[in-house]
Design a protein that fits this description.
With 486 residues, this protein is α/β, with parallel strands linked by helices. It contains 17 helices and 17 strands. It folds into three domains: 270 residues, Type I PLP-dependent aspartate aminotransferase-like (Major domain) (Aspartate Aminotransferase, domain 2, 3-Layer(aba) Sandwich), CATH 3.40.640; 105 residues, Aspartate Aminotransferase, domain 1 (Alpha-Beta Complex); 85 residues, Alpha-Beta Complex (Ornithine Decarboxylase, Chain A, domain 4). The longest helix has 37 residues.
Amino acid sequence: MDHSRAPLVAAVADYRRLGRYGFTPPGHRQGRGVDTRVLTALGADAFGADILASPGLDDRRARGELLVEAEELMADAVGAESAFFSTCGSSLSVKAAMMAVAGGDDGGLLVARDSHKSIVAGLIFSGVRPHWITPRWDAERHFSHPPSPEQVERAWREHPDAAGALIVSPSPYGTCADLHGIAQVCHARGKPLIVDEAWGAHLPFHPDLPTWAMDVGADVCVVSVHKMGMGFEQGSVFHLQGELVDPARLRRCADLLMTTSPNVLIYAALDGWRRQMVDFGHDLLDHALSLARRVRAELDEIGELTVLHQELLGVEASHDLDLLQVLVDVSGTGATGYDAADWLRAHRHLDVGLSDHRRILTTLSPADDITTTDSLVDALALWRAGLDDPEPHDIRLPSPEELQLETSMLPRDAFFAPTEAVPAEQAVGRIAAEQLTPYPPGIPAIVPGERIGKAVVDYLRTGVEAGMNVPDAGDPHLNTIRVVQS
């Protein structure tokens, strides 16, 4: 295929070059009607390219030839049979994949319990029954790893009628599952494997990166191009191959969730990023990986900071690691990751990907260079040098066993059941009606339908006091928790 083409980018350029004017949405008319204060903040170009009626992209021709061509080019670039663009993020894409595989199937779906909250939302939306696969735990570091093929095999033995399996890899920390082994386990039963690879859009384009799901037989793979690529926020692609998932059914499921007014900027950015990666991706990622190795070494030289690498790999840990995800353990300083992240934001205007009770994560990309990475290293060195007797945190960390809550109702049934907000202490032993999710990374500690345990409540409440963010809670302070009415 001709990867020098970017048909959606060309369509936007033609629209602007021809001076088209549409008596259609969007009503701002390429920015003509936008408040000047908004234009000053956002830039007129953002509105000038916000078009709906470009050929092949309006409602009448929503699956028109330009979008189809762009999706075919994307699939060819990464070695998939089909690709579908989403302007509603991988949150939409993974829901569509879950519905296509397990929607209306009483057997349910094998789901890794370290899944993102969007997957839980998919369970609530679809009514699919989850059969949780427990992640592997590093109890010393309070860290979860993706499940192993052996764990997936055990889950299949316990739930042989499940419609398929869903695994998250890479995790938000860059740790990766043995997707080849897991795909073999699933396919031995003739069942499909969905991979939430939201953090892996870049993986097909360099051999030194972890395994790309399509290369080892995954049936559906979801990627967020805005995370590790050069797309806009909400830009997502789901890829398909093989005969275990019906492409027409997958498209219909996506159409149930998709907006009928897609933002062409998001589509065009996906299209342009694919062309960029085919043309230059190897060299761009080569540079980024070289930069990551240097950053890792320099951060490791800062007293009492540990850049995690080998600790994350092994038989009882993860199968592989994306080196562009630089995970730094700051617990040796006596401070929390929340402390470090807050200081970097307040004093150096630097934001990190995530923070927890002992770590911060910095995500590097091909857009970084020596200037940006030096600012990170210098800032962390400055933070460490100025750290004076930090108070130890009082977050009550549960054991792996305490984190494994009993599922008493389907997530959908619990979410839509009659509910009540009760004091957090009284919620222990009750069935949760809301998900409670430290964010980032967005992995729920409590899922609707689970019976709430005291250790998890203590963990969340003391975490909030120490700086943890739990944005989906009805009461963000967690003085109360919403439960199913008795």
